[in-house]
Amino acid sequence: MEFTNGTNDPYDLYINDQYQQIIKAKSKTTYDIPAGYWSAEVVQRSGYSGIAIDNIYSNTYLSCTNYFIVF
């Protein structure tokens, strides 16, 4: 599964409620996720005024399938 941060700000990445890493601005990262239900959350770390952007994604992952999440 590939996560692409197309913004100018860094985001924290959580997969299945577990913190994974910071995804820097204008970068991407890839994770191998086993088949089955998954959830992912990306939370803006900086560059906001007021409330940070918080995006949540979920789906059932099929083996041998590629998923691309762009935020």
Task: Walk me through this protein's architecture.
- The chain is mainly β and 71 residues long.
- The chain has one domain: Sandwich (Immunoglobulin-like), CATH 2.60.40.
- It contains no helices and 7 strands.
- Strand 2 and strand 3 form a beta hairpin.
- The chain is elongated and about 40 Å long.
- The third-level CATH topology is Immunoglobulin-like
The amount of helix comes to under 10%
Q: What is the level 1 CATH name?
A: Mainly Beta
Q: How far do the termini sit from each other?
A: 14 Å
What's the SSE pattern?
A: EEEEEEE
Q: What's the number of helices?
A: 0
Catalogue the unreliable spans: none
**Structural class of the secondary structure composition?**
mainly beta
Q: Supply the number of structural domains.
A: 1
Widest sheet: strand ordering: 3-2-5-6
Shape call = elongated
Please state the CA-atom Rg, rounded to the nearest Å: 12 Å
Please summarize the sheet with the most strands: 4 strands, antiparallel
Proportion of residues in β-strands: over 45%
The name of the CATH architecture is Sandwich
For the secondary structure, the number of strands is: 7
Averaged pLDDT? 93
